[in-house]
Automatic annotation (TrEMBL), chain A:
GO terms for cellular component: SAGA complex; transcription factor TFIID complex. Transmembrane segments: none annotated. The keyword Transcription applies. The TFIID basal transcription factor complex plays a major role in the initiation of RNA polymerase II (Pol II)-dependent transcription. The keyword Electron transport does not apply. It comes from Lymnaea stagnalis (Great pond snail). This is Transcription initiation factor TFIID subunit 10. InterPro entries: TAF10.
Automatic annotation (TrEMBL), chain B:
Pfam families: Bromo_TP, TAF8_C. It is found in: Nucleus. GO terms for cellular component: transcription factor TFIID complex. This is Transcription initiation factor TFIID subunit 8. One of its GO terms (biological process) is transcription initiation at RNA polymerase II promoter. Keywords: Nucleus, Transcription, Transcription regulation.
Amino acid sequence: MASNTDETPKPQFILQSQISQENQQQIQDKPSTGVPLSDFVLQLEDYAPTIPDSVTGYYLNRAGFDSSDPRITRLISLAAQKFISDIANDALQHSKMRASGQSAKKQGKDKKMTLQMEDLTPALAEYGINVKKPMYFV
Amino acid sequence: MALESTTSTGQSSTPWRRALRTSIAALLVEAGYQCAENLALETLIEMTQAYISEAGRTSSGYAELAGRTHVMPSDVVLALVEMGLDFTAIPTHAKRENKTVFLPPAQAPATVPSKILQVGEKRKHPAHIPEHLPSFPDPHTYIKTPCFKQPANEYQLVREKAASQKRDVEVALTRFIAKTGATHSLFRDDKSAFPLIACKPCPLPYMSALLPMDSEISTQESSDADSTPQLHHQVNDGHLGLSTDVATDSETIDNPYLIPAKIAKKKWR
C-alpha cells in the first residue's frame, strides 16, 4: 500500500502530458487537475461510493481486473456513478422539456417524475448510445 | 423516499445485480426521479455493468502495456479518460450534497460441509500400493460377504424348538391342573402367586403301579363275568375306589348308546 502511494505521483505527471495531448479541454484545467487528482485518489481511502465496492470488484474481476487496491475500485465506482448520474440528469431535462410542451394541455398538477424509455433514449443518444428496445419487452 | 418501479420488479438472480439495481435506483432518486420504468432501469443496469467491465478491461490493458501486472490509479484514470469521462467533475460528484450510501451487502457465511459418516475402519494399503495414494473407502462399500438363510431343519434349531415346546406344554398342563384342582400356595400372603399342585399323601404310593389298569380290568371282567363276579367285586372293593366306580358304572348304564363295547374274548391260558 505504501509503495503504491509513493508511486502514484510519478505516472501521474506522465499521465498529465498524455491527457493534455488527447483532450484540448484538459489544457485549461491543467493546474487544477494535476496534483489535486492524485490527492483525490488518496482521499478515496475513506470514501464510500454509492455502488458498493464488492459489486464493482465483482464486475472488474469478471473483466480480468485484479483489484487489490480499494481506491482503484472506488475510482471506477465513482466514474460509473458519474456516468449514470449524467445520463439521469439529461433524461430529467428531456422529460421536463416534454412536460413543458404539454403543460398547457394536461400536466397541470405535479405528477411523480418517472424515468421512461422515451426520455432515456434521446439522453443516451447524446452519449452515442443507440438504444432500440421493443416497447412490449418488460 | 424510495424509488418505485412502474412495473413489477423482475427479481434478478445474482446478488451483485440486485445491489447494482439498488445503487442505480439511489442515483436516480438523487437526480430527482421518484419512479422509474423497469425497462429503463434494467437498461441502466446493463450499461453500468458494461461500463465497469470496459473500464476494468481497458485499465488492465494499460497496465500490461506499461509492463506491469498490477493496475495503478494512473492506468484507471487513463482508461476512464479514454472512455470519454471528464475527470474534473469527479471530485465534485464525489463531494455532492445528497450522497446516498447504503450498507454494502454482507458476505454470506460459508456453509460448512456436513461430516461424512464414518462406518467401520478403513483398510490399510497393501504392500504394493504406495502410501501417498488415496486410502480405501469405507469397507461396507466394496467388501462382499456371502449371505444365506439358516435352514429350518437344522439339528440344533429343531432340538431347541422341541425343548421349548415340551416346556410350554408342561407349564400349560401344570397351570391347568393348578386351576382346576386343589393348590398349595408358595407364599402365604398372596394366594394367587405361584400356585402349586396340592400333594395328596398316599399311604402306599406304589400300589397304583401294582394294580391292573381299567382296560385290563374291564376285559378281565367281561371274560370272567360268568365265573367269578363276586370275587372280583370283593377284590375291587377292598383295594381301589376308582376301579370299583368303573365297574359299578358299567352295570348301571341304562342309555342304549353308552353300552360298553364288546371285546372279543381272549384266552388267558
